[in-house]
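Quick one: structure for this chain?
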Amino acid sequence: PGKTLALLGLGKLGSEVGKIAVLAFGMKVIAWSTNLTQERADQQAQAQGLPAGSFEAVPSKAEFFQRADILSIHYVLSERSRGIVGRDDLGTMKRTAMVVNTSRGPLIDQKALLEVLNAGRVRGAALDVFETEPLPADSPWRTTAWGTGGRSEVLLTPHMGYGDEEVLHVWYQQMAENL
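Got it. Here's what it folds into:
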């Protein structure tokens, strides 16, 4: 309770994550995207069965990153959005903040994120997507001793963070039936 979840992108997935944050964890939810208004944020909250005002549209990108305790990215990758989370954005985040990206790797400037994490300037990151997938064996994401020597904690999953044993079993059954 009392932590702020910052949703970069408040579409279907972002608003579903916001609902969980509000109902399960009692978090404050803020959101930002290039064209997000409070009216649209209220519509997304209401679509999730939450009252208007449950999601706060933050008009300033800088304020959005400064207020984030947990940044969760739910944005569409395009040429305009590539690198939408840049060095300056990451640099304004709290040292206790966490970065979560399950959307698309190139939305974050990977070089800047590596620098921030290597310097321990945020608490950590949970990443399910990368610029290059699958990650090469010699990728610094794999070879760095995260959580040691002043570095941030980092959790990496192979763009399968959503898949547990039950889901994979159902998919296997569906594929077998299709064949």
